[in-house]
Amino acid sequence: MKNKISIAVIVLGLVASSFSCFAQPCYAARLSRKDKKEQSFLDVAKASFDEKQYDTAIEYYTKAIKLNPDNAESYAKRGNAEYLLGKYKEAVTDYSKAIELDPKRENLYYNRGIAKSNLNDYEDVVEDYTKELEINPDNVNAYLNRGTTNVLLKKYAKAIEDFDKAISLDPKNELAYFNRGIAKRNLGNYDGAIQDYTKLISLNPNYIDAYNNRGVAKFYMKKYSEAIEDYSKVIALDKNFSRAYYNRGIAKLGLKKYEDAILDFTKELEVNPKNDLAYYERAIAEVTLEHYNSAIEDYTKAIELNDKNPDYYYARGSVISKTDGDLKLAEKDLNKAIELDSKDAEKYLTRAIIYCKLEMYLPAIDDLNIVIKLDPDNTQAYDLRSYAISSLNSVIKKAKDNKVR
Questions:
Q1: 3-state class of 147 per DSSP?
Q2: Half-sphere exposure (CA, 13 Å, Cβ side) for 64?
Q3: Cα dist. 217→118, 178, 200, 214, 384 in Å?
Q4: pLDDT per position as a tens digit, 77-93
Q5: Which string of DSSP letters, residue by residue, matches 301-331?
Q6: Cβ atoms of 226 and 197 closer than 8 Å
Q7: Would you say 289 and 256 are in contact if contact means Cβ atoms under 8 Å apart?
Q8: What gap in Å lies between CA 91 and CA 99, rounded to an integer?
Q9: CA distance 225 to 223
Q10: Which end of the chain, N or C, is surrounded by fewer C-beta atoms within 10 Å?
């Protein structure tokens, strides 16, 4: 159940820097021929930008820069056009030049931070927002963006400090509550996260993600019934919301309502047929209800959708072995599970059980030795190893007796 980190403020936060027209007074009568030509280029560039013709805007800002390479405004606005075309490296270069020419200008560091965020250069992003806040300590969006970036860097405590500041400046800032809730949840402060999402819902009763994330926090607190209420609200607001039925199904598993959970996972798969986790979790419910064939089919479907998850192979192999199915297929599944995850003692233990059923005692002993090395307190491994050694000795003795005769 992954929580979504909203980065809308980063995507939408581009600020058009305000500049005086030129360093000298902007009186048309005093403009030189060169100044007039530069101004005409800037006028065309602005008109093109306003019409969302960003390539043309870049072309004319470039012409203006060639005439006057010391005008920070031209670089900053060309950077804005480049950003909106997805040319983030070029935008960073232009914002940097504008900063070089006018280092105290508000919003230049802010916009450069936004561009860098799209290059995943998060450490530098934090630095840019910090510099922006030195220029304007009341910039709510700079606190909000720096906090969001700190969430992406998993620096949750620092993120919370930024969101606190954003909320102190703007008590109704929805994204600040939303992202602070995410930071708190990642620190295990589920009560705090729930409080933030509840406050957000009071500000915006139709904020779907807030209900979803509050449900996640409640789930981690094992408040399954309350989580189900929140997921049900999500579904009522948007029946196609990503993983809403899946999340509600997981909560129902927590309440051991296996048949209800299966219904939710089935509904999830109608909405999102490529959700491999829904197949996997539905199979878990089916195993509990002893619907083994259905469970094996679901594990198989999960593997088809995601053949890199070791738990899917492990689960299918375990069910096959427990139901006395094709043990060689079960062995193959465990081989693949261990190939993908060689540090899980349970996988080796399950394969050892399969080996014992196949009377392959020597490889079973090898696996059990690994289990004991990984988990020295696993009593089942010691007991099974004793059985395997005893069974192997019996086989050897019987072979010797037959040879003597």
A1: helix
A2: 28
A3: 29, 12, 14, 5, 40
A4: 999 999 999 999 999 99
A5: HHHHH-TT-HHHHHHHHHHHHHTT--HHHHH
A6: no
A7: no
A8: 12
A9: 6
A10: C
Percentage of residues in the chain having pLDDT higher than 90: 86
Which amino acid is residue 62, in one-letter code? T
List the structure tokens of 402. Answer: 């037959």
pLDDT for 405: 59
Give the model's pLDDT for residue 242. Answer: 84
> Residue 272 and residue 152: Cα distance in Å, rounded?
27
Residue located via tokens 């069974």? 391
Mean pLDDT of 88-104: 97
Residue bearing tokens 């798969």 = 269
Mean pLDDT, rounded, for 259-285: 97
State both tokens at 358. Answer: 């196949």
State the Cα–Cα distance between residues 171 and 177, nearest whole angstrom. 9
Confidence of residue 31 (pLDDT cuts 50, 70, 90): low
Q: Do residues 104 and 136 touch, judged by C-beta distance below 8 A? A: no
What sign for the dihedral angle of Cα 18, 23, 24, 30? negative
What per-residue confidence (pLDDT) applies to 193?
97
Q: What is the mean pLDDT of residues 378-382?
A: 97
Cβ 321 vs Cβ 353: under 8 Å: yes
304, with CB counted inside 10 A (0-12, 13-18, 19+), is exposed
Structure tokens at 343: 């540090």
For the segment 141-152, what is each residue's pLDDT rounded down to a tens digit?
A: 999 999 999 999
Q: 129 with 137: CB under 8 angstroms?
A: no
Q: How far apart are the first and last CA of the chain?
A: 64
Decide: 287 and 258 in contact? Cβ < 8 Å. no
User: One-letter amino acid identity for 143?
Assistant: Y
- Token pair of 132, please? 């922006």
Q: Which of 23, 18, 25, 58 is CA-nearest to residue 42?
A: 58
Structure tokens at 214: 């509050």
Residue with tokens 């005893």: 390
